[in-house]
Design goal:
alpha/beta; 20 strands; 17% strand; binds NADP nicotinamide-adenine-dinucleotide phosphate
Length: 538
């Protein structure tokens, strides 16, 4: 039996639930298909100790309901994963979203029908949906890398993954624990696990920059002050470069007198977390300006670590700050001052294999009870390319994107009419406050659907020309930045064999929104809009 709906949304994380809320409010029937056994997306799967958001809670929350904004009380400046998951569940209950979500429903395939307007969507268990529109809301960091070392199965202890954390509590007391990977996940869990484990060893391949979170409880006064001016706060976030509400000093860092520049960095270091990159306008654009920020952070990292040998290993190498996603930490570097925490630099002494007792590097065998992989994700495209998505003339999305993702506005793909992507490659996505970008795109899509329905349009498709132009624009904006200087997951460098293409749009959320607005105002130039007779109607 096939369930017929107006819109199928794939994924029930922040993006999928927001899409459901909005499209349903327009009177559309919506089916949200979620592979997991509960809602929440990455915030459901990444339940590792220490997981928290590094965008401020007041900004990493939905803006669509002023009532929700007023009711919800964030307890900390940077919310923990359990608190965020409680928030998502609260939203789902408050807006009666669960009824339209099918859990345990992994989409195997979505195929464009012969009418080139509707889609057939099939789950792995054979259930089918037919929809006029399909919205991909599977997340950018939701397909974990399947890291495996030689002889891993011989290991007698337990192996965990930060991105597929078990739902039962894990007791580290008295245990010898390894963490492999020092991205945000490894950096967040290190100081927390260090507190209870007998021994913690962190295996680092690349030292990265990290800024202190300066986390703190949200006082009643602060809560009230934010809530009284919430609309203003949302507007300034929308009009800031990355949706965090920080507006950089308009001067080039290098042009500012040293004493003044250092004072600005010091203030940002003590308060801004991720926003440190926005202290001056050109930190991610100009090498000399970036050098000043990189040198400041390296000095700060050094000050936090007592042991000179460990300190040297923790200081990032010769790449510009921010070109690999920096972490925002709560005591990461200080954790290495504890007697029970060790650092193994696997760029010097690589892991050769697991043994029955633990991990063998080129110079030693390290015994463990628990090994945790925090080795990251197949970013941006991993989840989008998991199901078989088949557009016009049997063309699959995997074939279409074989040399890297192409789209118009990051949202629509030529040859895949009525298929839309939320916060995917080609949009500000991971270079922005993802939740803000999600809401911008959902609202814009809602307007597009309303326009299409009012004009008798059944098929919305990006033109090949608009797609080509957008890809060129995304690349041109990236070339203005320092991002291309460093292999990172922004560039597809995290997976062997992945096309090296700069994935997100680096023109900022405000610039991006203006382009979206202009596109809408032009009657959706760049799209071919077809009516029932398959003639272009707009
Ligand atoms: P990640 O940033 O990609 O870091 C993965 C780490 O694992 C890197 O240190 C990497 O080393 C290492 N690694 C990868 N493969 C390895 C291998 N085969 N052997 C040894 N080491 C290996 O992943 P993540 O820490 O899960 O974070 C991913 C992203 O999720 C973050 O950048 C952030 O956007 C998001 N996130 C956000 C939060 C938050 O909001 N606070 C928390 C967690 C994650 P190399 O650098 O050498 O590749």
């Amino acid at each position: 039996m096939t369930t017929v709906v107006d819109v199928v949304v794939i994924g029930a994380g922040f993006a999928g639930l927001r899409a459901l809320y909005t499209f349903r409010a327009m009177g559309l029937s919506v089916a949200v298909l979620e592979a997991a056994d509960d809602i929440g997306g990455v915030w459901y799967h990444n339940q590792y100790p220490g997981a928290r958001c590094d965008v401020e809670s007041f900004d990493y929350s939905y803006r669509f309901s002023p009532e929700l904004e007023q009711e919800w009380r964030w307890s900390e400046r940077y919310a923990t994963q359990p608190e965020i998951l409680r928030y998502i569940n609260h939203v789902a209950d408050r807006f009666y979203l669960r009824g339209d979500v099918s859990l345990n429903t992994r989409v195997a395939r979505a195929t464009l029908d012969a009418d080139e307007a509707t889609w057939s969507v099939e789950a792995e268990d054979g259930r089918c949906w037919s929809a006029d529109r399909v919205v991909l809301a599977m997340g950018q960091l939701s397909t974990p890398k399947q890291t495996r070392y030689t002889d891993q199965d011989r290991f007698a202890g337990r192996i965990l993954s930060s991105a597929q954390w078990p739902k039962e509590p894990i007791d580290f007391a008295g245990k010898r624990v390894a963490i492999i990977g020092t991205g945000s996940s490894g950096v967040q869990m290190t100081p927390v696990i260090a507190k209870t484990a007998a021994q913690l060893t962190v295996f680092q391949r690349t030292a990265n920059y990290s800024i202190p979170a300066a986390n703190a409880p949200v006082s009643d006064e602060e809560d009230a002050a934010v809530k009284v001016r919430y609309r203003e706060r949302r507007e300034s976030a929308r009009n800031s470069p990355s949706g965090l509400g920080f507006v950089p000093d308009a001067r080039a860092a290098i042009e500012v007198p040293e004493v003044e520049r250092e004072a600005a960095f010091e203030a940002a270091w003590n308060r801004l977390g991720f926003g440190f990159a926005l202290t001056f306008k050109d930190i991610l654009l100009d090498q000399a300006s970036n050098d000043t920020a990189s040198a400041f952070i390296k000095r700060k990292i050094a000050e936090q670590v007592d042991d000179p040998a460990i300190r040297a290993k923790l200081i990032p190498g010769d790449f510009p700050f921010g070109t690999r996603r920096p972490s925002v930490d709560s005591g990461y570097f200080q954790a290495f001052n504890r007697d029970n925490v060790a650092l193994v630099d696997i760029s010097e002494t690589p892991i050769e294999a697991f043994t029955e007792r633990g991990i063998r590097t080129t110079d030693a065998e390290h015994p463990f009870d628990i090994v945790i992989y925090a080795t990251g994700f197949d970013a941006f495209t991993g989840s989008l390319l998991k199901p078989e998505i088949v557009g016009r003339d049997g063309l699959s999305l995997r074939e279409k994107w074989s040399a890297g993702p192409v789209s118009f506005l990051g949202i629509a793909i030529h040859d895949f009419p009525n298929l839309f992507v939320l916060v995917g490659p080609g949009s500000p996505s991971l270079l922005s406050n993802v939740l803000l970008s999600t809401e911008e795109q959902v609202d814009w899509l809602a307007d597009l659907f309303t326009y299409a329905d009012a004009h008798g349009i059944d098929a919305i498709e990006a033109t090949a020309e608009a797609e080509r132009d957008w890809v060129e624009h995304v690349n041109a904006r990236a070339e203005e930045t320092l991002y291309l200087k460093t292999p990172s997951y922004y560039l597809g460098a995290e997976m062997p064999g992945k096309p090296r293409v700069f994935m997100p749009y680096s023109g900022g959320v405000r610039g991006y929104r203006r382009i979206l607005e202009k596109t809408a105002a032009s009657g959706y130039q760049g799209f071919e809009l077809r009516g029932r007779a398959r003639a272009a109607v707009a």
